[in-house]
Design goal:
- By secondary structure, the protein is of the alpha+beta class.
- It contains three helices and four strands.
- It has a four-stranded mixed beta sheet, with helices on both faces.
- Strand 1, helix 1 and strand 2 form a beta-alpha-beta unit.
- Helix 1 runs parallel beside helix 3.
- The protein starts with a strand and ends with a helix.
- The structure holds glutathione (GSH).
Length: about 80
């Protein structure tokens, strides 16, 4: 499963979501507008920054939109 932490209106998040759309990838989106989700993000990744990808199948997690786009292109295109 690919979980993507996002924030509404975040251009870096939209870049990842657009790439996912092009590749036909469905993310389980979690919006940090919800304080509980934001706390979960910080707990998992160590800082409050979106987008943040968690790939449970591969045991991979990462920040940085360009890295996320490159990762999904490499593994899920
Ligand atoms: N270099 C990062 C920039 C990410 C970034 O600046 N994200 C902003 C939202 S657009 C953020 O997480 N801000 C903290 C917050 O909204 O609480 C990337 O490309 O992913």
């Amino acid at each position: 499963m690919l979980t993507l932490y996002v924030k509404t209106g975040c251009p870096f998040c939209n870049k990842v979501l657009d790439a996912g759309g092009e590749l036909g990838i469905a993310f389980d989106e979690k919006d940090i507008a919800d304080d509980a989700v934001a706390a979960e993000l910080v707990s998992r990744g160590g800082k409050r920054q979106v987008p943040y990808l968690v790939d449970t199948d591969r045991g991979v997690a990462m920040y940085e939109s360009d890295d996320i786009v490159a990762y999904v292109r490499e593994h899920y295109a």
